[in-house]
Design brief:
The chain is built from 4 helices and 11 strands. The protein is about 15% helix and about 35% strand.
């Protein structure tokens, strides 16, 4: 199972980096951890198999359509999705506790606008970053591969001309 993880797209109109639609076409599922910003972008992403939550910058229409947090299972791996899981964007200990409270193996979150991946005792926590508005980092998204009930995360650095990935085990 290939799951494309993204968050913090912050687009008023659908105008992704050139490689994004190829990445989406290659995924079995897309998970968006909030801050689409506009319903138009959410509707466009809904053309693919999409699971999503709303973020702090999403308008009221999206807040009515989407949950604040989401839990689902894929290939016997329980996945949680939130936008802001804690106040700090530098120390992710609180997200480990949130993952434990949610009872998930993987917790996907947004809001940090940079790629984060930490394997904590309670769960694997992942922020895919932002493919359009990164903070102090490259524009990124991530891919979660699930095989034989094991989850692996791959950071994908997105730019208009190239896509480079780094595999974390």
């Amino acid at each position: 199972m290939r799951i494309l993880l993204m968050a913090d797209t912050h687009m008023e109109k659908w105008n992704p980096p050139a490689v994004m639609e190829d990445l989406m076409d290659d995924a079995d599922l897309i998970v968006h951890a909030g801050d689409f910003t506009s319903p138009e972008v959410y509707e466009k992403l809904s053309e693919w198999d999409l699971k999503a939550v709303y973020g702090n910058s999403d308008d009221p229409e999206l807040r009515e359509k989407l949950p604040e947090e989401l839990i689902f299972e894929s290939e016997n791996v329980k996945i949680g999705v939130v936008h802001e899981g804690q106040l700090s964007i530098n120390d992710f200990t609180g997200l480990g506790y949130l993952a434990r409270e949610m009872g998930v193996d993987v917790l996907v979150f947004g809001h940090a606008h940079r790629f984060v991946m930490e394997r904590l005792p309670s769960a694997l926590i992942v922020c895919p970053g932002s493919p359009t508005r990164p903070r102090m980092s490259f524009p990124t998204c991530a891919r979660l591969d699930i095989e034989e009930e094991k989850a692996k995360v791959r950071e994908i650095i997105v730019s208009p001309k190239a896509c480079k990935s780094i595999l974390f085990r």
